[in-house]
Amino acid sequence: STIATAAIPFAALSLLHSPSLGRRRNSIWVWGLVEKYMMQLSGGEKALTAIALLFAIQNLKPSPFCLLDEIEAALDDNNVVRFARYLHKLTKNTQFIVITHRRGTMTAADRLYGITMQEKGVSTLVSVSLLEDELDK
């Protein structure tokens, strides 16, 4: 129910056991759609499912630190913004390091770090603070 009331009401995952078939059936119910098998989902729907599961775990038992590597890469722009907004809510209990190329995620960040190579073989760290308090100083 946490996912259903969250800013990202994406999906409910169900792992059903079918005794007659002797195997498990992995299916998902995406809000606004019918129940689907995991293999029938698009790349974006699979990403939303994984993100919803991760956020549900974070809500239940927050970890102090989390590293996300392009987790939102398969999402469309609207869902990237929703992802970033909800991720920002989770920063009360967890410090996130997010590796991304998506503008929507970067605009929601407190700080940006990048590596640039202006000269061949020489890498330079570039950092930008996006906190309003620090921008005024």
What report would you give on this structure?
The protein is an alpha+beta fold. 33% of the residues lie in helices and 34% in strands. Strands 1-2-3 form a 3-stranded antiparallel beta sheet, with helices on one face. Strands 4-5 form a two-stranded parallel sheet. The protein has a two-stranded antiparallel sheet with strand order 6-7. β2 and β3 form a beta hairpin. Mean pLDDT is 76; it is low at 1-18.
Strand order of the largest sheet: 1-2-3
Low-confidence stretches: 1-18
Number of strands: 7
Query: What do the pLDDT scores average to?
Result: 76
What is the string of helix and strand elements? HEEEHEHEHEEH
Oligomeric state of this protein: single chain
State the helical fraction: 25-40%
Structural class: alpha+beta
How far is the first residue's CA from the last residue's CA? 42 Å
Tell me the β content.
Answer: 25-35%
Reported for the largest beta sheet, the result is: 3 strands, antiparallel
| Alpha carbon gyration radius | 18 Å
Tell me the number of helical segments per DSSP (H or I, 4 or more residues long): 5
Overall geometry comes to globular
